[in-house]
Amino acid sequence: MAQVKNRLTPFFENITFDREDNELILNFGPQHPSAHGQLRLMLHLQQEQIVKAHPDVGYLHRGMEKMAENMIYNEFMPTTDRMDYIASSSNNYGFALAVEKLIDVEVPRRAKVIRMMLLEINRLMSHLFWLATTALDIGAMTVFLYAFREREYLMDIIEGYCGARLTHAAIRIGGVPLDIQDSFITQLRTFLDKLPANIKDYEDLLDTNRIWLMRMEEVGTISTEMALSWGCTGPMLRASGVQWDIRKEEPYELYDEIEFNVPYSDKGDNFARYRVYMEEMRETAKILYQTIDMYEETVKNGQTELMAHAPKYISAPKLDIMTQNYSLMQHFVLVTQGMRPPVGEVYIATESPKGELGFFINSQGGPYPYRLKLRAPSFWHTGILTDLLPGHYIPDVVSIIGTTNIVFGEVDR
Amino acid sequence: MRAYTPKDDVQAKSYYTDRYYVAPQVPKQEVETDEVFAADLAALKAKFEVKESFIQVGQMVVYINANDIYGVLEFLRDELTYTQLSEMSAIDWLAKDNTFEIFYQMLSMTKRKRLRIKFFINKGEAVDSVESLFRCADWSEREMFDMFGIEANNHPFMKRILLPYDWQGNPLLKTYPLEGDEFAAWYEVDKIYGKEARDVIGPEIRDTARVDRYDSERFARLGFEVPKGTEITGNEEPNKQDYQEEGGVFLVKKFTKDASKIIDDPQR
What we know:
- The complex is a heterodimer.
- Chain A is built from 17 helices and 6 strands.
- By secondary structure, chain A is mostly helical.
- In chain A, α5 (141-162) runs antiparallel to α6 (183-206).
- Chain A is globular, with a radius of gyration of 24 Å.
- Chain B is α/β, with parallel strands linked by helices.
- Chain B has helices at residues 35-47, 69-78, 94-97, 137-148, 182-185, 187-192, 198-201, and strands at residues 28-29, 50-56, 59-64, 84-93, 99-108, 113-122, 127-128, 152-153.
- Chain B starts with 27 loop residues before the first strand and ends in a 67-residue tail after the last helix.
- The interface between A and B is large, with 55 and 46 residues.
């Protein structure tokens, strides 16, 4: 049979392009492994170069602000775990601190020290996780395995404290529920003693690695103006030349008694952010050593209280509840009806591993917050991709998303 | 008589309130008690109308006119070093007096001070976008539009951000139902298959552990396996399945329950 001549022409040659400019729209995500969760990016490409980027978020939206408006304050605490689930104690803490400012209670010293320990362990966990996943995105598998090994050790310590590895709910409004376990300090010391060598291992693998440098240096440069205008905070802002750390500038807990530096860089590129993260891990280790000393001091001074004494808002210790009638009544009312903070408004920002984590609470004197706004740093660190990505190439997208360190539990809330 | 439930606020209510309970206030201080804030407020008052101002929990709160917002934020950013807009959103007061309260949380890094600019707008009114002053307002205003339906004038891309574009209703309004309504319940079915498929597909099953022993399409019946689609009467013969082929394997003795000795003495 005679062949039909047309059949031989390749199929794609029959396609005509409507657009003259050769612009291709690439849909990136929401299931891309390097999108760190549910990020969808619509990238307008000119060859391999991005001319326009449109981040699309909301795939993990759970309506946390709405949930908060219909929960009593203590009930909302485990929900905050699900924001930045890489470092969940920092969310617990941000919420607890905001409510404590609202009801004006002072947390006992030992509880403050334990909280700081938890916060800094969470920061280390978050930074190690960041390093592991970013390195993996770039292709450095070894660093991923090393960093996860260390993170696992920290998660074991946390698990020994509160029983959970990721969603800790380890901080209560008014203090902490438990004293640290016996092995906590020994384990932490063992870990911290090894940490400098571990960080050096990562740096040996990465700092002079040609591939790492090519993917990181001069890529994703954020100027100071851009960082300020986009509301960047945390390492994103510090890598862009602003030495601003809320722990230092507006100290909460006992951070004003602690000596630590705020590492920053004025380069603003991916590599600067990487350096800031690495230096912050070292600073965090310094802080943790000091909190161990502070803890041992509270033991020496016999400061054993873990929860603030404010019977209107916070339940009495378990021993009192079990032995004293009035404490039991208070506890019953606080659990069934919830605390009723005074009428007023508060916005409290804390330095979470990702940046400024703010809780805005408007209370109308009822057991439910009238309005609760969660200011999550990752939300704007995702938004900045709109302005940051154009001009870069497709492989840069992966490394830029990596160094922005966004977590979608927090972006979508 | 049935208790009246307000329709303009369907949120959770405390089931018990003491009639004589008067909620205390978070104390407010005069702005004059803080030098930095007093100077900022004086500078602000010279150019704009300030309706009310006080300090609460260490932060200054300033009420202004809705029309002034762009000018005020520009003045704060350029003259008073409040270079960062940390957060902005709205509070729903529709049930009380048909207004929204909009707040802008500002931060000055050089003064280490935070202040909150606030104003009221009526329902249906729009706010002026401050996106050209602070790029982060691009996303905040979109979120506010998404959650409250408040539009921002001169915004470059006024679309929903967290919810899908075709979503109905604004979740953070106090009138928004706490449980999904009909639209939400059938959202995926309507969108993918069309409304007429509702009867075919049926309502969503929320019980993840559900097992239907009469459904041979979707559930395996261990020990009582039947071909897919068989009508199940309940009198099915058990499916005896040998774990070991007839004739046995070299050196492996076939296990039979009857032939084996069962030790049931726990104290053995």
